[in-house]
Write a structure and sequence with these properties.
The complex is a heterodimer. By secondary structure, chain A is α/β, with parallel strands linked by helices. Chain A has helices at 46-53, 81-85, 107-118, 123-136, 142-145, 155-167, 185-202, 213-219, 237-242, 247-255, 346-353, 377-386, 404-415, 421-434, 451-463, 481-498, 509-515, 533-538, 543-551; strands at residues 4-14, 19-30, 34-40, 61-70, 73-74, 90-93, 173-177, 205-210, 222-227, 230-236, 296-307, 320-331, 335-339, 361-366, 369-370, 387-390, 469-473, 501-506, 518-523, 526-532. The two termini of chain A are 29 Å apart. Chain B is built from twelve helices and no strands. Chain B has helices spanning 8-14, 16-23, 25-42, 44-47, 88-124, 126-140, 144-158, 161-196, 199-207, 211-248, 259-267, 276-303. Mean pLDDT of chain B is 85; it is low at 1-5. Classes of the chains: A alpha/beta, B mainly alpha.
Amino acid sequence: MSFLKIKDLSVNYQMRKETVYAAKNVNIEVNKGEILGLVGESGSGKSTVGNAIINLIDEPGKVSSGSILLGELNIHEDPKNIVKYRGKKIGLIFQDPQTSLNPILTIGEQLIETIQTHLALTKEEAKERSISLLKEVGIKDAAKRFDDYPHQFSGGMRQRVVISLALCCEPELLIADEPTTALDVSIQSQILDLIKKLTKERNLAVILITHDMGVIAETANRVAVMKNGDVVEIGITKEILTNPKETYTKSLVSSVPPTNKKISRFVIIEKENNIDNKNNLKILNRWTKKKIIKQDLVQVKNLSKSFDDNFFTESSKNSVMAVNDVSFNIREGESFGLVGESGSGKSTIAKMIVNLFKPSAGEFFFDNVCVTKIKQNSEMMKFRKQIQMIFQDPYSSLNGRLKVRDIVSEPIKLHNPLISKNDLDSYVFDLLESVELAQNSADRYPHEFSGGQRQRISIARSLATQPRLLVCDEPTSALDVSIQAQILNLLKDLQEQLNLTILFISHDLPVVRQMCDRIGVLRDGKLCEVSDTEDLFLKPQHDYTKELLRLMPKIESIYN
Amino acid sequence: MDNNINTTWSRIKDSDIFFSFKKSPTAIISSFILFIIFFCSFFVELITPYNPFDPSSLSLMEAFTPPSWTEEGLSKFILGTDGQGRDMLSTILYGSRISLIVGFSAIIFSLILGVGLGLTAGYFGGKYEMIIMRLTDVQLTVPSILMALLVDGIARGLISREMHDEMAIYVLIFAIGISEWPQFARVSRAATLVEKNKDYVSASTIIGVSNLVIMFKHILPNILRPVLVIGTIGLALAIIAESTLSFLGVGVPPTTPSLGTLIRLGNDFLFSGEWWITFFPAIFLVILAFSINLLGDWMRDTLNPRLNK
C-alpha cells in the first residue's frame, strides 16, 4: 500500500486565449522510505504536481479533477484541511535558499514559530527540538548558531536550515522542488546525501522535483518522466535510464552529456527541424576562412581584476580580487574551457577578454598584439570585430524592442556601412540559416521565440562580424537538456566549418568535457590547473579538481 | 508559418495592453471623455458659432446671461455668458485649448530634458551622475509652483512690457517644464541602471556600437514605459500648474484666457450671484485632470510588471 496516491490529477490554467493543461491525468504513487524523482524540462508540469499536493496552485490555475490520498485521507476533499497538513504532515524544500528564509528573523525564531504553529510545545521545548534538528541536518555549533540571521549562513548551510524547517513537525511526506539547482556542485552532493540519509532514517516519502538527470541517477529510487503535463514513463530509476521505452525518455537520456567519455555529437532523437546539409553553409562564401596554424591566438599573462568594495576609500585593503594572476594560452582553432564554481572569476575573465572591463593588472594578447594597451578607438574596433561573445541568459541578451533582422544586421552595418540593402538581407538570411532558423524569423520579435531559439539568434549575431574568437559564457546553463544538446551540436558544427576558436566557460563539467580540447580549473580567482581534457578527467593533478570530479552527479552511477 | 508576419494593427489588437484596456471601464470612459475634450478644443472653430476673441461680435447687452436652463437664460448661450457677453461654452473650449497646449508642451519639454539627463547620468555614472542627481535633489526641495513663479518673475524682469503678453505662453511652458524635470530624470536614471547591466547592452558594446547609439537606440525604447506612465500623470499636474499660475495672475493674459484665467475672472463675480462664470471652467478643469489621472493610473497598473502577476 503506497503512502501518497495521486489519482487522475489534472490542473488547468484558464488563460486569455486558451486553457493550458499544466498537468493531465497524472497518476503517481510514492511509498514510505522511497525517493520518487519527478523529472522533466521546463513547462513539463513537474512543479505543478508538487504544488497541487499542498494546494499552492496560483490563480488562475485550478485543480480540475482527480484526488490526492495521503495514507487513507483524501486531503483535497475539504480545502480547510490542507492547512493542517501543510507543514505538519507534508514538508517543503524550495529551490532558492536565499529567498525561502525570512531575512529579518533569526533561524531560531523561524523554527520555533513553525513548530509552535503545529505542535503544542512550550518555547523551551521547541527550542530544544530545533537545536537537535539543526544538529541532525549537519549544522555545527547548532546551539550557538540558533540565534544567527539567515545572511550569516552560506548558501548550502541555508538550504540545510530550510530542510530542518521542513522536518521540524515530523512530516511523513517531503516535497523538494529543485533543492540543489541554485547550489554549487560540491554543496549539491552534500545536500543530496543529507536528503538520502533523512529518507532512510525517518522513513519519509520524498518527491524530488528536478531537471537534472544526474541528480535523479544518484538519489531517486523510482522516477517519473513528465512532458507537457503528461507522465510519459514511470518506473525504477535504473530501468528508465538504461532502457527507456518511450521516444521522449530516450531523447532526454541521450541529450545528457556523459561524464565518463567524450562523444563527437549528441544524438538528437526528436529534432526540431531537419536541416542536414551541414557541409554547405552559405555563410562560408562570405567568410574569409582562417587557416589553422598551430600558434597561440590568445595569450593571457598575469591577469588580475579587483573590485573596490568601498566607494569612498580607494584603498586596496577593501578590494576583492575577483581574478588573481591568471595566465593561459588558447591556440588557434581549439576550444578552451574554463571551469569553476560561482564566484571563481570565470565570467570576469570573459568580460576582460571581450573588453567590457579593463584588467587591474596583467596583459592580454590577441594574435600577438597587446589588446590591453590599445588606446585608439579605431584600433579597438578591429579587435571588437574579431572577438565576440555569447551570453548565459537568452532573455536579457536580445533587445526586445528590435526585430531579429535589426538585431542581426546591427553588427554588419556597423563594420560595413556601405553594404547594399539586398546584400544585407541575404547576409542576414545566411546567418539565420547557419544557426538553423527559418528566414521568416527575421521579421519577428525576440519574445516570439523559445530560449533555445533566442540563443541561436544570439549566436547568429555574434557570427555577423566574422569573429575568430567566440567567448561562450555558460551558453546553455539556462536551457533544457535537450535544447542544450542541440546548441552544443550547433557550436561544434560551426567551429568545424568556420575554424572558430572558442573560449567556453561553464560550471558544468560534463558539458565542458564534451566541448573542450583543453580545460583550466578556476577557484577563487586563481587558476588551479590547465591540462588536456582527457588528462584532466582521468588524471587530475590538483586536489580541487579531484574534489570537483568526485562530487559531480554522474548519470553513469546507475550502472554500478 | 508564412502568414505569421503581423501588421502593426493586428499586433496592437492582440496585445495584452489592448486586452486590459477593453476590460477596464475606467480606462474606456476616461479616454472617451479625453477624446471629446481634445477634439472639441482643437476644432473649436468648427463647433461653436461664436468667436469670443472677436470684440465686434460681442454685445455687452448680453453680458451676465445665466445658463440656458435657468429662468433668465437664453437658449443660444447654453452655459451663459461672462461679464463681456462672451459665450461661456466657447470661451471654455478656447481656454482649454490653451491649457492643453501649455500642458503638453511643458511636459514634452521636461520629458526631453529629464530623460536626456537621467539617461546619460545612469549610463555614464561617476561624477556626472552625482552632479545631476544632487541637482534633482536640490530642486525637489523647492515646491514646483514656487519654482515656476520664480522663473516667471525673472522672465518678467528681462522681457519688455510690450513683448510680455506675446511671450507669456512660452515663459509659462518653460517655467512649468523646468519645475517638472527632476522626476523624469530620476525615473529614467533608475530604469537605465537596470537596463545597462543587461546582456544586450554588453553585446552591443562588444560589437563596437557607440555609446550614443546604445543609449538612444537600445536603452531608450526599453525605459519608455515607466517614463510614459509618470508623463501622463505629469500632464495633469502641468495643466493644473498652468491653471494655478494663470489664476494667480502670472500666467497667460486675459485677452487669450486659459482655464485658470477664466476661473480667476469669474471669481470676482462669485459672490454677486453670477456663479456660472467661475463654476463651469472649474468643473471642466476637474473633469480634464481627473480623466488624465485615471488613464494614468490604468497605464501604471497595466505597464508595471510588478503589479500584475
